[in-house]
Amino acid sequence: MAVDRRELAAVFVGGALGALSRAAFETLAAPDPGRWPWPTFVVNIVGAFLLGYFTTRLLERLPLSSYRRPLLGTGLCGGLTTFSTMQVETIAMIEHGHHALAVSYTVVSISVGLIAVYVATMLVRRVRVRRS
């Protein structure tokens, strides 16, 4: 299997932008297992929305490109979102006795993430395609 170096570069650039954005956003609040982890929650929901938007737009509205999806989906959204940090935060909540917070954080994160993808997909599909 041949490796497309430009596609790898697109993933790298998108991933770097996403990870740097997440890191900058996560400096806004110190981790506390007794409180809602807003930075992680927000980047995951924004990332889910963007992934729904980009995936639908790239597949249904734009001409085929071998670099847009790796750049925006795998790279940017993959670097921005962090499911593993959500899991670590949830375990910390449980270990500190905040069971209700852990359950609500998990349920709300997954539910709102799914809603974000759905809303983004519907927004892309509602926009009329202009014909010249």
From TrEMBL:
Membrane topology recorded in Swiss-Prot or TrEMBL: Multi-pass membrane protein
Activity modulation comment: Na(+) is not transported, but it plays an essential structural role and its presence is essential for fluoride channel function.
A biological-process GO annotation: cellular detoxification of fluoride
Keyword Ion transport included in the entry's annotation: yes
TM regions (residue ranges): 39-59, 71-94, 100-124
Subcellular locations according to the entry: Cell membrane
Gene Ontology molecular function terms on file: fluoride channel activity; metal ion binding
InterPro entries, alphabetized: FluC
Record's keyword terms, sorted: Cell membrane, Ion channel, Ion transport, Membrane, Metal-binding, Sodium, Transmembrane, Transmembrane helix, Transport
Binding residues for Na(+): G78, T81
Main localization, broad class: membrane
Catalytic activity: fluoride(in) = fluoride(out)
One family name in Pfam for this protein: CRCB
NCBIfam families reported for this sequence: PRK14216.1 (NF010812)
PANTHER family xrefs: FLUORIDE EXPORT PROTEIN 1-RELATED
Similarity field: Belongs to the fluoride channel Fluc/FEX (TC 1.A.43) family.
Role description: Fluoride-specific ion channel. Important for reducing fluoride concentration in the cell, thus reducing its toxicity.
Name of the protein in its database record: Fluoride-specific ion channel FluC
